Amino acid sequence: MLVKAGTGIVVCAVANEAAGSSEEFAILDCTCASENILLAAEALGLGAVWTAVYPNKELMDFVRKELDIPQHVIPLNLIPVGHPTGDEKALDKFDAKNIHWQKWGGDF
User: Fold this and answer.
1) Is the model's pTM score more than 0.90?
2) Nearest in space to 30 (alpha carbons), one of 54, 48, 49
3) CB distance 6 to 82 below 8 Å
4) CA angle at residue 101 from 37 to 28, to 5 degrees?
5) How many Å apart are CA 8 and CA 83, to the nearest integer?
6) Which residues are registered as beta bridge partners of 51?
7) CA-to-CA distance for 74 and 54, rounded, in angstroms?
């Protein structure tokens, strides 16, 4: 995909820049950022796809080497972004059985 895409975004996490210098929070933050990138691409009429790098050590090492990313930086994913070449649309995977509603007592 990346070869045919107009560009690619590598989302990286830096633990010491996250809340509590936590690797877990850094990964969560970058996961949210990645989803926002995908939503923004869709809103602009572009095609984009999350291509996982983390937690596969071989893929992480490859991306680090190719892009000269320091060892303390965690490459989370690679998002190829470009203009769609076909008419494919995202599948509607909504299933109401996967939703659980719980009414809570008290004031929120």
Assistant:
1) no
2) 54
3) yes
4) 30
5) 12
6) 78
7) 8
Count the neighbouring beta carbons within 10 Å of the beta carbon of residue 83: 11
Q: Which of 71, 50, 59, 56 is nearest to 8 (CA)?
A: 50
Look up residue 77 and give its amino acid: N
Q: What is the pLDDT along the chain (108 residues), one digit of tens a residue?
A: 777 888 999 999 999 988 888 999 999 999 999 999 999 999 999 999 999 999 999 999 999 999 999 999 999 999 999 998 877 777 788 899 999 888 887 665
**Could you tell me the domains of the chain?**
7-85 (3.40.109.10)
Which of 49, 40, 44 shows the shortest CA–CA distance to 8? 49
* Contact predicate 8/77, CB 8 Å: no
CA distance 26 to 15: 5
List CB contacts of 40: < 8 A, sequence separation 6 or more. Answer: none
d(CA 47, CA 32): 18
Distance CA 75, CA 60 (A): 6
